[in-house]
Design goal:
The chain is of the alpha+beta class. The chain contains three helices and six strands. The longest helix is centred in the first third of the chain and has 12 residues.
């Protein structure tokens, strides 16, 4: 059974999942710290290119199965129009201002 985004523990992660699922690019970008970074399957990626390709132009969607580490680590089914659906892991670093400074994802 999936966890509804509104029930996720960490406010920044909750907003991240909500923005992804709503295809809300502006809301998503507002969540990120100024110099935010990310990695996919252990390799750092260009954040702007990755979110365009993997989330917004391909209709990305997260269904969260489990959360840990105070809500800053997720196991989820992620799907988009490019890759279909896969089980993924996500971890988030949130700065003192409540903005995401880094996220890491990859296949679980």
């Amino acid at each position: 059974m999936t966890i509804q985004p509104a029930k996720l523990t960490d406010p920044a992660v909750r907003a991240f999942v909500t923005a992804v699922n709503a295809h809300d690019r502006a809301g998503f970008m507002d969540l990120l710290a100024e110099n935010a970074t990310m990695s996919d399957d252990g390799s750092d990626r260009d954040l702007s290119e990755w979110i365009e390709r993997e989330i917004f132009s391909s209709n990305g969607h997260l269904d969260v199965d489990n959360e840990s580490q105070g809500g800053r680590a997720l196991l989820a089914h992620y799907r988009n129009d490019t890759w279909g659906e896969m089980r993924t892991r996500w971890s988030f670093t949130v700065d003192d201002d409540g903005r995401i400074s880094r996220f890491e994802t990859g296949q679980a």
